[in-house]
Amino acid sequence: MRFKLFVSLLALALTASASIVARAQDEDEAVRGSFITSRPKSSTSSVNSTSATVTAGANQVTGGAGSTGRTGSAARTNRPRNSTGRASGNARVSVNASSGNASGSIKGNASVNTNPAGNSYVPNAIGLGYTLYMRDSSGNAVRVDPSQEFHAGDRIRLSLETNTDGYLYIFHTENDGTPEMLYPDVRLEKGSNRVQAHVPYEIPWNEPGVENWFKFDANPATERLYIVLTRQPLPSIPTGQALVDYCNQKHCPWQASVESWPQLKMSGQAKVGVVKSTQYGQKQTSAEREATTRGLGLDQTAPEPSVIRMSATADAPILITTVDLIHK
């Protein structure tokens, strides 16, 4: 009798575990699919990738709060030709240019079933995907796990992709210190922080012939990036001409106040679905490089971001993502 009872309990536990795993997988597919489906099915530009990890098949989403990925010359027409990473004084992470004249330092396989029954992840919910690249010994940008440890001399950069048009803010803290704004930057698009759906953005910014990287120095620290994506501009943070005027009068970068920073962080506490890649080591494709430097939209054949985060609430106005870079 005891043996039969044990077997019954074991079977019940296994069934419950399988159900939990299935629900988690369904949620992963909902998050991934809802993010990718607003990419166009294919691109008429040269952004197609031969190493696709996303299966096309979703209908393109238009209208509403979501926005379609754009191709062509719609983005970044006023990027400076020799832009550099933001300069700051006491940096842990520095910007290194392997070519060109940039310099300075900085603090610093998807199914597209987009809305399973009972799931709130929908294509017009606000979402962000990101991929961390590290420079290998041959100078290639290689995908790496953001949670790994980094050491002095390592060079990295972060690629960001949104699923909706909106406004992007990036802040950096070191060992939970004062947050400093890395983006928007007055040297990039005159301080504008308007971003377009599925057009990849990188920090530090790169252009053809100029390769910028964050370079870790010899001082161990925990570097934390706060990536803030909003549907509407945040009125308390200067952008555009207001940021230009601020930087002309004071020493940039702009720093968040002690009073406003906790409020900003609290505004992004809503439930978020997260999907993380389990495979790393792939080189950045030429199509991804071209899309980033030319401001082109990625289509559904392009590799998906290493991490995708999506709000569980369709009409959430803000999404805050933190990326911790452990520097040993």
Detail the topology: elements first, then pairings.
Elements lengths: L1 H35 L56 E5 L7 E2 L20 E9 L5 E4 L4 E2 L4 E8 L3 E9 L5 E4 L10 E2 L5 E3 L8 E5 L4 E10 L9 H10 L10 H7 L5 E5 L9 H9 L12 E5 L6 E10 L1
Parallel strand pairs: 5-15
Antiparallel strand pairs: 1-2, 1-11, 3-4, 3-6, 3-14, 6-10, 6-11, 7-8, 7-9, 7-12, 12-15, 13-14
* Count of domains: 1
Strand content: 25-35%
Structural class: alpha+beta
Number of helices: 4
- The average pLDDT score comes to 75
Q: In summary, what is this structure?
A:
This protein has helices at 2-36, 240-249, 260-266, 286-294, and strands at 93-97, 105-106, 127-135, 141-144, 149-150, 155-162, 166-174, 180-183, 194-195, 201-203, 212-216, 221-230, 272-276, 307-311, 318-327. It has 328 residues and is α+β, with helices and mostly antiparallel strands.
